[in-house]
Amino acid sequence: MIQEGILLAFGNPLLDISVNDESCHLLSKYDLKRNNAILAEDKHLPLYDEMVIQYSDKVQYIPGGATLNTVRVIQWILQQPKVTTYFGCISDDKNGAILKKHAEEEGVNVQFQFTHEQPTGTCAVLCVGNDRSLVANLGAANCFKEEFLDQPSNWKLVEKAQFYYSAGFPLTVSPKSMLRLAHHAYACGKTYCLNLSAPFLCSVFKDPMMELLPYVDFLFGNELEADEFSKAHDWNITDRKEITLKMAAWPKKAGTRTVVITQGEGPVLVARGGELTEYPVSRVPENEIVDTNGAGDAFVGGFLAQLIRGKSIDDCVRCGMYCGDYIIRQSGCTLPTKPTFQSES
Predict the structure, then answer these.
(1) Pick the residue with more confidence: 114 or 292?
(2) Phi/psi at 268 (nearest 5 deg)?
(3) Which amino acids are annotated catalytic?
(4) Fewest CB within 10 A of the end CB: N or C in the chain?
């Protein structure tokens, strides 16, 4: 049995509104890019209603937000309730109720902060072939307050955890909360994990990310985020192996940092202690790919599920690949069947 609450996650809970925009009409109209994630601006706000109107009965509503996707996958792999605890902010509305209900049904111990200032956040997911474009309207997620951590019952959950994880997106909401969790992990010899999550975070939110990085034990990202990280720091490096090694060597408070970079169909790069390992990925047949949305979140979920079990990095990467391959065969980050993954160590 794994310790209950061994991993605590902090993220932006969102309800995904997903459609197949094969004609690229909405993609073009709202000037969106494939395989990109952005925060909604005023010009994007009509998109959510337009998706529902244009695609009517073809719209899917899926509990989401990058961090919540990842912990849902952890719960799915481990098949043990409340291994993970999740902090985030929602509103007491219909969308919030859907999020809470589904996350709890999947075994996550959700501890939401509630606000009346904004409705529960949503994320437009436009799927075009095997590509996707994400537009997040944070809503209530943007209202998370660090004081939530001060509540005795919540801080007990923080102290109980041995691992901490967050996508990079809360850097736009409450970087102080992320830093506080990272400080606690460092002071107590625990493990703090961060995902770069989107290229714009590596540049626009570079300063809070750099304040957090010295405490990060495991750093995840994809090829586009790694490229942007290099560009934001004026490294003038395009070789992703070099970028991954340099990210792992970034000054750290204590211990060694592990950096894990996925590259779609390219090999997964893992850098640690000045050494780099490449893990070839299996190619999913084109006709089996349904939706790539959530694949990166699922990879991290599989990786972390094995990490908290004390498994080898090889097993962590294998499980990450298994989860990523599984999710792209589904519509959205959905988990309709039990996992079949078996660790080797």
Answers:
(1) 114
(2) -75, 130
(3) 297
(4) N
